[in-house]
Structure formats: structure tokens, C-alpha cells
Description:
Structural class: mainly alpha
Number of helices: 8
Helix content: 55-70%
Radius of gyration: 18 Å
Strand content: under 5%
Shape: globular
Largest sheet: none
Order of helices and strands: HHHHHHHH
Number of strands: 0
Amino acid sequence: MAPWSAKSKNVGLLDTAQRSTKNRILTSVNEAVSEVQYQYRNSEEAIPSNDITARLCTAIEAVFIHGLMETFLGRLSSRFGEGGSGTPRMPEPSFWTFSLVFSHKEVISQIESFVQINTDVGRSRTWLRAALNDGLLVSYLTTMIADKVSLAVHYEKFAFLR
């Protein structure tokens, strides 16, 4: 068997695995949105923070994390650990630097002013919750998907958002 034929077979397996992952993410988002819509269909009140909305946020977070490239700063901190301990940390799935490109200065300032949120993962989650609460998530996603350059800088070619 020629070496290139084995490689092309592996590429096909990766494509299938990536499609499967994307389908699972999409299914998760669809189920979470349906659950929120069903649960709060007759409500005039703001949707509270609970298990149902947490599931929706987690599903949408998976969209932003899928195929995310590790940033230079993230690679550096994961290699050397915090506080110079020398023990490598696990990479943290943070799309904060990507969301910064599309966010208003006021949103960024507000999120960065929260003293209890001190990681980029926390800032990413806070940004997502704020985008949902303000009704801006669709607008953000539309703008993000249209910006091919920013997507290429922050995401792998197989990423859900690309």
C-alpha cells in the first residue's frame, strides 16, 4: 500500500469524526434551545439562571470552543504554569480573545471590571451570558462568521464556526 493512500484514509476518518462532533454540538444546541423555549413559552419575565439556561450556555460554548486554536499566551502559560511553579497546566478553552475582536469597549470594560472573574474562561462565559441577555448573540455570530480573517487566526479549518 502506498503511503499516501493510508494518509488519505486517515483524513477521511478525521473528516467523519469532525462531522460527527459538529452534529453532536448542533443537536445539543437544538435540544437546549427547544427546552428553554418550551419551559418559558408563556413567561413575560426574564429567563432566570438555572439548570436549563446553564445547559444552553454550555451548548453554545461548545460552538465557540470547537476547533479553537491555542493562543501564544495560552501556550506560554500552560508550559510554565502559574506562579512559576514549573508544572504545566491543562490548556483552557477560552474564546475571550476572539470575542474581544467583536465586542464594544463598554462590554469589555464591564466584564474585566468583575473582580470575581479572573480567568479568560470565566470572561468568555460572562461574555456569552451577556450576549444572550442583551439579545446580541445572533448579531455577534453573524459578524463573526462574516470575518474570515479573524476566524482563520483563531480557529482551525475544521472548526464549527468556520
